Amino acid sequence: MNTVHISPEPLRVLLQAQKIATMPQLKSALGTSVDGTVFRKLSTLTYRTSYSHRGAYYTLDSIAHYDAHGLWSHNGVYFSKRGTLLDTAAVFVTNAPAGCFIDELESMLHVPVKDALRQLAQAGRLERREFMGRYLYCAAQRARCQEQLALRQAQQSQGSELQAAIVLFYSLLDEQQRRLYAGLESLEHGHGGDRRMAELLGLDAQTVARGRREILSGQVQREGIRRAGGGRPQTKKKRLKS
Question: Where does 137-221 have alpha helices with state H?
Fold first, then answer.
């Protein structure tokens, strides 16, 4: 029995002619009724599936002109370098300086994202926090999430230059330094300082309290400083025998 070899070239010709195509159009170009055949031939090309229209459209990377955010659209159909809507939404939220509300992400991606964000939060790929009566979506990484929450809080506080400076400085510190700095700043506010700094920096109030206690007691771990007796043992100099 002779094996029929189908070339992917008709797919390339079709997509170059009209830039995007649906599965029925691709099957017609190949002369097949089998989706699997189309996917096998597409796999030999560098192609993308649309993240809009439930992934019903296809294009080639050589055709798409992605913008600075890795997005491209044609006739209202949207494609992303990241691939699916889930992967694209995860990257956009993680890279957003202050996280994203649903409407903010929808304005960037031009498609509904509520269900996608819910799935990402349930899968642990994003963090969902309640903020001012709304859900704010942030990066899954704890440190990055705290940075985003802190900047969002600073933006909400009517653009205070001092608060913005505090948030910027805070974002440059490591985990221990952040805790200690938050505790130190809370002392300036007196009663309720832990709560105020926790809200500003996106921390738990207990974390701020811990930093404050460590500062006041002087029990701070000085990383990188060797304990007494640490380090390489000294070597005794040998005298040359005459």
Answer: 142-156, 161-171, 175-189, 193-201, 205-217
